[in-house]
Amino acid sequence: MSTLERIFHALLFEVLAVSLSILGLIIFTDHDPQILSGTMIVIASMAMAWNFFFNWLFDLFFTGDKNKRTMKLRLFHVIIFELGLLVLTVPVMAYILTISIVDAFMMDIMVTVFITIYAFIFNWVYDNVRAVIIRRKSIPVTVSIH
To answer: Is residue 120 a contact partner of residue 74, using CB atoms and an 8 Å limit?
Structure first.
């Protein structure tokens, strides 16, 4: 995957994730929607940087066709990614929302459970759609004029 595609992947992932996370937090918490939106944009920015760095490292260790990754490897990928992100984001969330570390952890766990499921589905779909696009680009096109 090229650097440009990694950036596209991370941006697409985060735009969808942030939008859905903000909506969920607005529904399930009593925090101000503007503060939640700002918080999730900061968290998403951190997540994008982490996503880029983590996936670059992960791909160095786990090479090969991504669309052929096992379910076990995909679960390992998501769990390790999300644990690392939790360590980075809980203190930031606590600070911005002026809540305790425990409350931030609980809120971040809710978001993390959602994002973990979302990440699994998103990456599976992305990898398979990408494989189809690459396969189609490699098929020669013939033009017949009658």
So the answer is: yes
Residue 145 lies in a domain: no
In a domain, 144, yes or no: no
Residue with tokens 């379910």: 71
For the entire predicted model, the pTM comes to 0.65
Alpha helices in 62-100, H assignment, sequence order: 71-97
Domain assignment present for residue 143? The answer is no
What stretches of the chain adopt beta strand conformation (E)?
Answer: none
Measured distance CA(140)–CA(43) in Å, rounded: 44
List pLDDT tens digits, range 47-87.
Answer: 889 988 999 999 999 888 888 889 999 899 988 998 898 99
Calculate mean pLDDT across residues 103-130: 90
Cα(110)–Cα(34) distance, rounded to whole angstroms?
A: 19
Distance CA 19, CA 41 (A): 9
| Residue 18 belongs to domain spanning | 3-138
Match 């998403």 to its residue by tokens.
44
Domain membership of residue 77 (yes or no) is yes
Structurally, how many domains does the chain consist of?
Answer: 1
Amino acid at 68: K
